[in-house]
Write a structure and sequence with these properties.
The protein is α/β, with parallel strands linked by helices and 460 residues long. It has 2 domains: 9-233 and 431-453, Aldehyde Dehydrogenase, Chain A, domain 1; 237-412, Aldehyde Dehydrogenase, Chain A, domain 2 (3-Layer(aba) Sandwich), CATH 3.40.309.10. The protein contains 14 helices and 20 strands. The strands form 5 sheets. It has a 7-stranded mixed sheet, sandwiched between helices. Strand 16, helix 13 and strand 17 form a beta-alpha-beta unit. The protein binds nicotinamide-adenine-dinucleotide (NAD). The site of nicotinamide-adenine-dinucleotide has 28 residues, from helix 7 and helix 8.
Amino acid sequence: MTTAPSLLVSRNPADPSEVLAEVPAPGAFSTVDAVEQARTAQPGWLLGGATARASALGAIAAAIDSAADELAALAVREVGKPLTEARAEVARTAAIWRYYAQAPYEPAGGVHETAGGPGLLLTRRRPHGVAGLITPWNFPFAIPSWKAAPALAAGNAVVLKPAPEATACAQRLAEILQQELPDGVFTLIPGGATEGNALVSSADVVSFTGSTAVGGAVVGTATGLGVPVQAEMGGLNAAIVLPDADIEQAAAHIAAAIAGYAGQKCTATSRVIAVGAALGPLREALVAALRTLPVGDPADAATVCGPLISEQARDRLEQARKGARVLAGGTSPDVPGWYAAPTLVEDVQASHPLLREEVFGPIATLLPAADLAHAVRITNSVPYGLVTSVHTADLDAALYGLDHVDTGMIRVNAPSTGVDFHLAFGGAKASSYGPREQGRAALEFYTSSRTYTLAPAKTT
Ligand code: NAD
């Protein structure tokens, strides 16, 4: 008996009646087959040389720049990303490809003296083969690109399995990439857990970004198979505000980090920790900032907070804010589209889900701390460790934060959101597993080192 393939359907979160993509899920066999075909294409891509790879990556950057308006509009419609942020994501995506287009020309290793006798020792980094990439929907162009570009630059072939909610964006990105790359070097496998799991079980190196629950399973499977794996997962990020901070500026940064893109960034702020006398003025400034933050149609360039990705995501948010005292927001407007007002709550018990689990929506909890050391203890008290922002005019306080906060990234007087793609990116504890993404770190991850010994054919 054969069963019909399941359908992948993605909808416009601002107008769920609009379907952006409706494609049959290819299933596990097709996924493994795509990996096999990529494995066949990979040696030609590697041995074609640095110029061929550099040119292709440069051409992809140019093609993304040329299609920038169309790509941004597609992200607005498919994943509800506010237009200004969508434009910034597309510009960053082109920059990522341009950055890694230089990488094929860079040294692939080193030259060493032998420990004794004539000859030469060389180290050389070589690609793993086929990189299996599994990505979330929230950065539908940038995340697939910050994985695929270094993997391809290093000479791997790539199979991408994007999130079903971002299928149309992934299809358009794949079209651009495949126009510039030899056949089989980049393959898109739309799909869900079945295809993702098949990819993890068949690729030579695996890079995952998504929730901590799914990431844990991916890491378990890959490590069981002895396959190199990295996983970037969720966060429960804190902003620490000291009384000496510029409270208006801190509130503006934090409001944007809570509610920008409806809080659907792994780096969003979900806990705001006010130290001592900062509590009163910060509460007032943050409530005002959240109430005036532009919420609405993501196609409007002024919008900061658009819809949530799905009805389930909004239900999860509504469930999460139960039992907390609402200072701002706390409502979901009765309009088409999965919108929710940016929300700040307080008087939340330490065991409340808001302080234990990632909600991935525009909500944060305001918490008091007696002093900076107390604020740092609260920050470090959760299983996650992605990013923290510290708001202060006191250099010693900032340095104390850098020394004691247990997150992969710390940003002083800046929102917790925002990533520089040319530096290593990643978290601590349950937020990350394995080597870092982005920058030079990514090129290391997609390669392994070989040591060559060259001795004379005749020693006398
Ligand atoms: P998700 O975990 O639901 O899905 C991520 C990807 O995994 C999707 O492609 C999905 O289809 C796939 N998948 C699902 N089950 C699988 C399985 N059993 N085996 C293999 N693949 C499987 O996450 P999401 O809802 O798409 O994205 C939101 C999450 O991503 C949030 O937790 C957010 O914090 C996280 N995120 C983290 C970062 C970071 O860099 N740390 C960046 C962006 C998003």
